[in-house]
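User: Can you model how adenosine monophosphate sits in this protein?
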Amino acid sequence: MLLIKGSNEVKKAISFLKNSRKTIGFVPTMGALHNGHISLIKQSKAETDITLCSIFINPLQFNNEIDLNTYPIKIENDIEMLINEGVDLLFLPDKSEIYPENYKPIDFSFDGLDLIYEGKLRPGHFMGVANVLKIFFEIIEPNYAYFGQKDYQQTLIVRKLIELLKIPIDIKVCEIVREETGLAMSSRNVRLNETNRSNSGFLFKILNELKEDLNNISVEEAIELAKSKVALNAEASCEYLDVLNRDNLEKWEEGYIKNQSIILSAVKYGNVRLLDNILI
Ligand code: AMP
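Assistant: Here's the modeled complex, given as C-alpha cells:
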C-alpha cells in the first residue's frame, strides 16, 4: 500500500493510474477503523481497479470542540487493517494540506436538507462535510465513492453535492455493519461504558419493532411507542426518531410508506450519540 500525505503526489499517482485506464474507488474516513469502514473498502475492491482510502479528522465538520479533541485515533492499527484489506493507496493529509491558512468555507445550498435532523443538532456539520469532500473529490477524481447508510442524511447531502459540482462520481451507499448486539458500529462507540455497550442493541430492536408496528397502528402512535421504549433505558434520551420520505427526509405522508420510507433516529446514550436507521 502506498501511503501519501501530499495532495500533489496523490494527483500524480491518480493521473498515472487513469492514463492506464484504471477505475478509482474512494473511501473517505476519519480513521479508528472498524468493520463498517472495512465493508466499504471490500465493496470498492470488488467494483474498482484501485481503492484509495483517506483518513482525515475534518475539523470543519465538528460542532463540538470536545468531540473533536477526543476523537479516537488509532493510526498504526488502521494502517495494518488497510494493508490486510489490500487497499492500494492511503491518503493521510495534514490539516494544512487540505485547508490553506486563508481557506474560506463554501456555503453550499442544500435546500434546507443540511438544517434538519443531524444538521439541526450539529450546526455547520454538513457544510464541513461538503467542503472537505469537494476538496477530496477534486484531488482524487474518483469514479466511485463509498459511503455508509449509517450516516444516511450524509449520503443525501453527498448526492446533492455531486449534482451541484456537476462531477461524474458514482456514489455507492453500503449497508450498516452491526455489532452482535445489533448496535451500528461507530468509531465513537469506544466511549460507551461496558454496561451500556452490552445493552446497546436496544435501539436497533426498537426500530425493527417500529417497522412492524407500522402495519398495525398509525405512524404517529408507532413513533410515540418507540420513543417511550427508548426512554425505558437508563441514560438513553431520544434526540430524534421519525418515519420519513427517504429521498428528502420530509415527514411521512399517507401513501408513500411502502418502499420509500426510512426510520431515522439519533439517541444519546450515556455520553455517546447513537445514530441508526432502517429502510422500509
Ligand atoms: P467516519 O470515519 O465515521 O467518517 O465514517 C466513514 C464512512 O464509513 C462513512 O461513509 C460512514 O457512513 C461509514 N460507516 C461508519 N460506520 C459504519 C457502519 N457501521 N456500517 C457501514 N458503514 C459505516
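A couple of observations from the model: Residues 231 and 237 are 6 Å apart (CA to CA). The chain has eleven helices and nine strands.
User: Helpful, thanks.
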